[in-house]
Write a structure and sequence with these properties.
By secondary structure, the protein is α+β, with helices and mostly antiparallel strands. Helices cover about 30% and strands about 10% of the residues. The chain has one domain (about 10-170): SMI1/KNR4-like. It has six helices and four strands. A hairpin with a 4-residue loop joins strand 3 and strand 4 (about 145-150). About 40% of the residues are buried. This is Knr4/Smi1-like domain-containing protein. It comes from Streptomyces fodineus.
Length: about 180
């Protein structure tokens, strides 16, 4: 996963997965992406950055289940410039002793250093991490905990990052298709 440079093969796969036939009219364009980045003091990770600039900015088709939200909507309640507070999965309902003020950290997990990509419903939201060591990775954040997505984290055979997450969905596989590590 390279979050600093778009891979043309990944971009082609993203175009195919979303089957955008509007010639890029639903994409934001580079000026809007640069304006978002300047306003929020962040550089979006690739290939998501090029995807919203050139392919499409949101889609009613998945992933996730209820569609991919647009950049402005996904960043509306977020503070992407602040560091994402986690470096490993955390099931907070079962681990109350990890942090001195777990409620404050839980609030940060859903807000800081990420963009909301959309939801599978029932409080199961997908986020793209845009700052910190997990920049470029996708995390599922639920009412019970937060989990990084990608084969190196367990529970899935999927590749990491936005392209791996979309490819896994486009292939019709279950999100968590591997036994826990």
């Amino acid at each position: 996963m390279n979050s600093d440079q778009a891979d043309p093969t990944e971009l082609a796969a993203l175009r195919e997965a979303f089957a955008v036939d509007d010639g890029g009219e639903s994409a934001l364009g580079w000026a809007a992406v640069h304006a978002f980045e300047a306003e929020h003091h962040v550089v979006l990770p690739e290939p998501y950055r090029t995807f919203v600039a050139e392919v499409t900015d949101g889609s009613c088709q998945g992933p996730p289940e209820y569609g991919l939200v647009g950049l402005a909507e996904g960043g509306a309640k977020q503070d992407p410039a602040k560091p994402f507070p986690l470096s490993e999965a955390w099931l907070w309902e079962e681990d109350e002793g990890r942090y001195a003020d777990p409620d404050a950290v839980i609030e940060q997990v859903g807000r800081d250093g990420s963009l909301l990509l959309g939801t599978d419903g029932c409080g199961m939201d997908w986020h793209l991490i845009v700052t910190g060591p997990h920049r470029g990775h996708i995390w599922q954040i639920t009412g019970e905990g937060a989990y990084p997505f990608g084969a190196e984290f367990g529970c899935t055979t999927a590749g990491s990052g936005f392209a791996g997450w979309v490819r896994h969905w486009a292939d019709g596989r279950e999100w968590f298709d591997a036994p826990p590590a």
